[in-house]
Specification:
This protein has 352 residues and is of the alpha+beta class. The chain is built from ten helices and twelve strands. The strands form two sheets. A seven-stranded mixed β-sheet has the order 1-2-3-4-5-7-6. Strands 8, 9, 10, 11 and 12 form a five-stranded antiparallel β-sheet that branches. A hairpin with a 5-residue loop joins strand 1 and strand 2.
């Protein structure tokens, strides 16, 4: 990535194998408001995470030049296409305007002091990324461009696991140590981790996984509609894992001391699993930050008792999943397409 123009507008250009494939501009703006503009990728470079990386870089640059609040302005006609990408990076719809966005900065600076813009105009759609306009600005304790990228690009990795590269035990222990900082109910810390690298035991776990899950996955895939292309890719990846799980160099099984009694109330289940899955996610984030990938699976639990016998797990210990762990082939991953948070969030009362 190289800088092609001097301030006040800074244009950043992405390259693939020495050829320009896209660009984005960052503008420091005035009164703490910055702009991200001119986001473009050539068609063959799309859907590869490049636009997200460009926008994240431009946001970081605008903040480095004094912007506390950053705006991006897609044309309204194309708004539905990039909005999921922008939402994944932390942008939220704010207002619409018929004017070129940079010409609105004086108005924005004035109205920002008293509250958000409410005028329903048409044309460009301004999206903001920062603290809400009616709250005091806050200095983030971390570099948000780094933390947000980690959180939004830690994917369920299957086909891109490196099946040949060994995983050092020390790296796994580092990640488990970080997972131990996750919260647990009543500070019980009943988590336990079982790392399986023995090839014969991995092969047996893979056999159980296939016997327990292949039929379920096939039935679920057949029920998908024609429009569910993203989900179909997920199932194709899941079937790849069924056939290759034994080759993944490390299987990590998170466990908990104790078992749910049969017919346990929802509060008991929520308390128990709520004391292990935050640690599992922390473990996966730690893996990602070190160049490794994983995916949380549960299909071997159809044969949990057999797996416990194979691995010597005591009767009073619950397995909660299996994570195939390996270094990834490449470290660049992109945010998934998701609906805007406003479509799944309710405030004070559930409303359709």
């Amino acid at each position: 990535m190289r800088r092609a123009r001097a301030p006040p507008v800074r244009l950043f250009i992405a390259e693939i194998e020495g050829r320009d494939c896209g660009h984005v501009a960052a503008w420091g703006g005035r009164d703490g408001i910055g702009l991200v503009e001119w986001v473009y990728l050539v068609p063959e470079a799309r859907r590869r995470g490049i636009a997200s990386a460009l926008v994240a870089h431009a946001v970081e640059d605008a903040r480095g030049h004094g912007a506390e609040l950053v705006l991006i302005a897609p044309l309204e006609g194309s708004y539905d296409v990039p909005r999921r990408c922008y939402a994944a990076l932390g942008f939220r719809p704010w207002f619409r305007t018929t004017r070129y966005l940079r010409a609105c900065l004086s108005t924005l600076s004035t109205q920002r002091e008293s509250g958000p813009l409410l005028t329903p105009l048409r044309g460009r759609c301004g999206m903001r990324r920062s603290h809400p306009s009616n709250e005091a600005p806050m200095s983030a304790p971390f570099d948000l461009s780094v933390t947000d990228k980690l959180l939004s690009t830690t994917r369920a990795v299957r086909k891109r696991l490196d099946l040949e590269r060994p995983v050092p035990r020390g790296v796994l222990l580092e990640c488990i140590a970080l997972s131990q900082q996750a919260p647990t109910g009543s500070n019980s810390q009943t988590w336990r981790w079982l790392i399986v690298s023995d090839p014969d035991k991995r092969a047996e776990l893979a056999r159980m996984y296939k016997e327990g899950g292949a039929g379920y996955l096939d039935m679920a895939r057949q029920q998908l509609g024609d429009e569910a292309t993203q989900t179909k890719r997920v199932y194709d990846s899941a079937f790849w894992l069924v056939e290759n799980l034994a080759r993944v160099p490390v299987h990590v099984i998170p466990c908990m001391i104790g078992r749910l009694p049969e017919g346990a109330a929802n509060v008991a289940a929520a308390s128990m699993y709520g004391s292990i899955f935050p640690a599992v996610w922390s473990f996966q984030l730690a893996l990602r930050s070190r160049g490794l990938g994983s995916t949380l699976t549960t299909l071997h639990l159809f044969q949990e008792a057999e797996a416990a016998k194979l691995l010597g797990i005591p009767d009073g210990v619950s397995q909660v999943g299996l994570l195939p762990v390996a270094y990834t082939q490449g470290t660049e991953f992109k945010p998934a397409q998701r609906d805007a948070p406003e479509t799944i969030t309710h405030f004070d009362t559930w409303a359709d």
